[in-house]
Amino acid sequence: MATEAHSPEGATGYIIHHLTPLATGEGFWTLHLDTLFFSVVLGAVFLVLFMKAAEKATSGVPGPLQNFAEMLVEFVDTQVKDSFHGRSALIAPLALSIFVWVWLMNFMDLIPVDLLPSIGKAVGLGYLRVVPSTDLNATFAMSISVFALIIFYSIKVKGPIGFAKEMLLTPFGPWMIPFNLLLKLVEEIAKPISLGLRLFGNMYAGELIFILIALLPWYIQPALSLPWAIFHILIITLQAFIFMVLTIVYLSLAHEDH
Amino acid sequence: MSINATLLGQMITFALLVLFTMKYVWPPLMQALEERKKKIAEGLAAADKGKQDLENAEKRAKVLLKEAKDQAAEIVNLAQKRANDLVDESKDAAKQEGERIVAAAKAETDREVQAAKEGLRKQVSTLAIAAAEQILKTEVDQNKHKEVLKDLKKQLG
Question: For B5, which residue in chain A has the nearest alpha carbon?
Answer without folding.
Answer: A29
